[in-house]
Amino acid sequence: MNGKFLSTENLPFCKGCGHHIVSQNLEKALSSIAGLSPLDVIVVTDIGCIGIIDKQFTTHTVHGLHGRSVALAAGIAMATEDPKKKVIALLGDGGATIGLQHLMEAAQRNINMTVIVHNNMLYGMTGGQPSGLTPRGFKTPIMPDGKPNIGYDLCKVLHATGAPSVRRLLALGDFTADLAAALAVPGFSFVEAMEICPSYGVKFNPNRKLDDIAKEAGIEIGHWQGPAREPYRPATHDAPASLFATEKPIAARHKAPLKERYAVVLSGSAGEGVQSAAEFLAQAALSCGLHATKKGSYPVTVGVGFSTAEILLSPKPLHFTGISVPDAVIATSADGLGKVRGLIEKMTQGTVYLDASLEAPATKATVVKHDFRAPLGGRSAVLVALTMLLDRAGIMPTDSFLDILKDSSLGKKIDFAKLRQKGG
Amino acid sequence: MSERYFIDNSRLIIEATARAGADVFIGYPITPANLLYLYASQRFPVVLPAPDEITTLQWMAGYAAAGKLPVTATSYPGLALMIESIGMSHMMELPMVIILAQRLGPATGTATGGATGDISLLHGINSGGYPIPTLCISDPRDAWELSAKAVHIADHLRCPVILLASKETVMTVQDVDPAVMTPIEPVRRRFYTGDAPYRPYEPESDGVPPLLPVGDTRHQVRITASTHDRSAALQHSTPEALANSRRLAEKVEKNVGDYTLFDWDDDAADTVVVAYDVTAAAAREAVALLRAGGRKASLFIPKTLFPVPPKYFEILGRYKKVVIAEENLQGQYREILFGKRGRDGVRGVTAVGRLITPEEIAAEVRS
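Structure tokens for the assembled complex are given below, as produced in the milestone run.
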């Protein structure tokens, strides 16, 4: 048979293999679709015996990795805008279990594709090892007494995941209509075709018939339909704006007396605005013509514990961003102090701004204690402390920082009269 | 001083890849690559959240086979899951960019710790030793220029390209002169236009076969990751098929002159300091320190890590002393350049779990 979609009936499978039957039914099902040309079809094959059929298809063919054909086909299907194109993934039971996630994702999204799992109940290409779909009691070379546990039910899994069309059939005789119906589904359709591997399945399970095996294992043959859904199309942004459309550069409008690199570490509790305070400080430095870098540090669970930021300021371009010993440290909470205690103890000069509630670590730095949390609450404690630092340190004008704050989203929320505290 | 942005390199990387014509971002989150995913969600024409990193690479391969140019961003744990699929895409000859933000290993390690510990892995990422173009950023200018270049190389060489960075180089926020954002030429995808039947792996003179998306209405397109001849037919080990596999390395190596990127500040010294990624910044300051102290020292910052451009050996061969600083256990790039045994005058400065300081590098030069 020289078919429209399969160039030959001389397929590369063992005598008696169900893959012949599924392939010939697929040829007929594709041929039954009016106006469908081989170039409207993209066949994606997995690793395994079914994967060596590419050469016989007159369609586009893609042959990838073991277990990944469904994800690869899903990528092609999502990128293919013409809904008339048929993307078909062909794989075995081994590929289906290694890539179960891909099946569920394609089913759940309702990606416009058809998946045919050639379930011959074992790994045929590598010596007949059992797969996740091997039914209980089915014998294989490495389990000659039969598989002790039930194979899992792909059809039920995918039906539960929301696939609009799921079928299981025995790969016997003519089931063209079933495959044609699967191919006609707009969106995701799934077919599990049960076969017996003639090389290993028949040999280890002599005289057992396919339908008996299915019945004895409680495997249902049937068609399960899910709610009709629109096939998935990825959202597209036709003309996305530049990331710099809203990011405004900062102009130098102040002057700063800073002559050398100056390192500040801010440390407080998560959710108390430490990272944004650090950004405001750095932006203020830019508005003074200084260079600045900022790094944040916080636990992976971002909502609890400490939040620490390192800021470097310099009149010269900054390359190396490490801070061995800072010039100033601000700690506004116990979480924050816990993180920078060692750093404070290493300081031999500079200033530590510490909330009044905290006990000062042993340090040669000057310690300024103040109730930073009282004026505007914990969320603004770092801003209060930074304002005091700028008033005292003489590195850049405090007004540059206040200007940045006024222009920020906090500008209308902060009571600036309370922000600037005298103390220390 | 003129106006400056206060931004991280992730923003520059995503903007540059999008301007260069990458059109799909497929993401799976992982620290420290999450900013790249976030910005891509605001900037790319199509953004898909994948359920895992293997799916990510497979979807990318599907999009690339259909004529798109996909990008993702990950870190070592994600890369480890992607590697088989990167090899597949390399064998299939599918263009894509994988941004790798290195973090502190081994294993899960420290998600928010910096490191440049994936160099040996990237050097041998493909079974058989087939190199994948790997560009490494060390500053905002690189984040802009190398990102665009990565997209162009992926298209031109029809292969995956790795854009290498690290926690420090994608997350640190710094002042950036808008002048680094030079105009970027968008890639002009060239697909096969001939009338003769399309042979997917028939190379042109540069060793690269023209791509044709699957689903083409005039020609059958075959793509495969198994050993194959020029028509994409599976072969065990025919001379044509083995030559085709060999070509995968040759096209990357033969064209490396088009993407040999480095900074070289030659001080007519007998010593050169070599560093990449975040350590390049420390190396710059180390060289400045040395010169300020009257010690001559040259600086070499490789940007194209793989394949190692032959030009590097020509440059480094001029120096009696070569000090290579990098943030991994054994000095991975040094071992790749000079072998485990090294040569007289080749010295390493390494650190794990912390930044190498300019003073350490300067001390090694002086020693």
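Chain B touches chain A through 75 residues (CB under 8 Å). Residues 262-366 of chain B form a domain with the Rossmann fold fold (CATH 3.40.50.920). Further analysis is deferred to the final report.
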